[in-house]
Amino acid sequence: MDSSRSAQRAVIQFLRAEGEHSSQIYRRMKEVYGEQCLARCTIFRWCQRYEARRVNIKDLPRPGQAHVVTNSGTISAVDELIRQNRRITTREISVELSISKGTVHHIIHKKLGYGKVCAQCVPKHLSEDQKTARWELDPSATQEFLH
């Protein structure tokens, strides 16, 4: 049985259309859904919305800034700026791309997987080719890769 919010809202809408009272809807839904049931005040709120002729069971969009900044174009632009200048700061990137410093930080660390080493952005994990090239330059560095 689907106990998602939208499924329960559909049940509320159906029972309300049949003329069921809000408290009776809550009792019936509590019997069926148990612990997964919406809260009593939520059921009453949705009953009021359906009485006011609302037909959509989905949430309405909330005000605030949309999270559309972190897309593939922005991620590739940040990556390109970092590859051009490894010492670029998050502030410089945010000014260049007109996005917040927090978004730049999220893209650098979570999306691209970069970290700061000696004030330069570098990948956190070396590839096998990079490990081999580094080992050829300094054979004593093998202990670092064994862990």
Describe this structure in words.
The radius of gyration is 27 Å and the shape is elongated. Among the domains are: 48 residues; 47 residues, Arc Repressor Mutant, subunit A (Orthogonal Bundle). Helices cover 57% and strands 5% of the residues. It has 147 residues and is mostly helical. The two termini are 47 Å apart. The protein has a two-stranded antiparallel sheet with strand order 1-2. One of its GO terms (cellular component) is nucleus. Its main location: nucleus. InterPro entries: Homeodomain-like_sf, Transposase-MT_Hybrid.
Short description:
Its main location: nucleus. By secondary structure, this protein is mainly α.
Summarize the topology:
Blueprint: H1 5-17, H2 22-33, H3 40-51, H4 72-84, H5 90-97, H6 101-111, E1 114-117, E2 120-123, H7 128-137, H8 142-146
Helix pairs in contact: 1-3, 2-3, 5-6
Widest β-sheet, arrangement of strands:
1-2
Q: Fraction of residues in helices?
A: 55-70%
Order of helices and strands: HHHHHHEEHH
Instruction: Name the shape in a single word.
Output: elongated
Organism: Araneus ventricosus
InterPro entries: Homeodomain-like_sf, Transposase-MT_Hybrid
GO cellular component, one term: nucleus
Protein name: Mos1 transposase HTH domain-containing protein
Q: Which features does this protein show?
A:
147 residues; mainly alpha; Arc Repressor Mutant, subunit A; two-stranded antiparallel ribbon; 57% helix; 5% strand; elongated; Homeodomain-like_sf; Mos1 transposase HTH domain-containing protein
